[in-house]
């Protein structure tokens, strides 16, 4: 045989040998894994109580506020302009995921309902924000409620008030002097 043929045969044998060697060394890689989610989301209102702040002696008849999850309903009868009642909503994070109070909603809808003289406002108290001013509209908040924080540290204050009209505007006594309102505390996961 010619030298060229031996080289071709040797190359063919080398290629076949490499293929057999690769096949012998190649194995299927199988990876088995298990992932467990250990996060628990559990943010809810613990209680609502009268703050002790109210306008005027005998100024209001207080219905018992109610709550479900992160929604709170208030019902107050006010007797005269300038009368008001303030409540504190205590919220706690029972889960193990940081929660952010993204917004408080329902205030604008409640204030646009009759009687318009009775207005709902809310503000937040937290170590990071201090005490925010009262607002009569839905509001974006953005404070973090860490797991296990005690209810006294983070609170939402809600005021129900019969608003006194500005100077020069006659005060109208509405036929209905009460209003029920529900506000929602919208928490999201802190990413």
Walk me through what this model shows.
15% of the residues lie in helices and 43% in strands. With 191 residues, it is α+β, with helices and mostly antiparallel strands. The protein has one domain (43-189). The strands form 2 sheets. Strands 2, 3, 4, 6, 9 and 11 form a 6-stranded antiparallel β-sheet that branches. Strands 1-5-10-7-8 form a 5-stranded antiparallel β-sheet. A hairpin with a 2-residue loop joins β3 (66-68) and β4 (71-78). The protein is rod-shaped. The N and C termini lie far apart (75 Å). The mean pLDDT is 81.
Secondary-structure element sequence? Answer: HEEEEEEHEEEEE
Number of strands: 11
Biggest pleated-sheet summary: 6 strands, antiparallel
- Report mean pLDDT, rounded to a whole number: 81
Ends distance: 75 Å
Put simply, the count of helices is 2
Tell the overall outline. Answer: rod-shaped
pLDDT < 50 stretches: none
Radius of gyration: 33 Å
**How helix-rich are the residues, as a percent range?**
10-25%
Class inferred from helices and paired strands: alpha+beta
The fraction of residues in strands falls at: 35-45%
Whole-number count of domains: 1
């Amino acid at each position: 045989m010619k030298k060229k043929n031996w080289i071709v045969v040797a190359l063919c044998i080398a290629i076949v040998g490499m293929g057999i060697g690769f096949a012998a060394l190649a194995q299927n890689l199988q990876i088995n894994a298990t992932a467990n989610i250990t996060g628990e989301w559990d943010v809810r209102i613990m209680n609502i109580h009268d703050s002790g702040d109210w306008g005027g002696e005998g100024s209001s008849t207080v219905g018992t506020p109610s709550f479900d999850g992160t929604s709170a309903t208030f019902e107050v009868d006010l007797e005269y302009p300038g009368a008001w009642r303030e409540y504190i909503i205590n919220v706690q994070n029972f889960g193990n995921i940081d929660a952010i109070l993204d917004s408080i909603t329902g205030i604008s809808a409640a204030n646009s309902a009759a009687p318009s003289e009775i207005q709902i406002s809310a503000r937040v108290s937290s170590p990071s924000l201090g005490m925010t001013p009262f607002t009569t509209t839905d509001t974006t908040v953005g404070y973090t409620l860490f797991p296990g924080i005690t209810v006294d540290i983070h609170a939402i204050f809600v005021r129900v008030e019969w608003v006194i009209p500005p100077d020069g505007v006659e005060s109208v006594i509405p036929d209905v002097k009460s209003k029920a309102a529900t506000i929602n505390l919208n928490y999201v996961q802190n990413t």
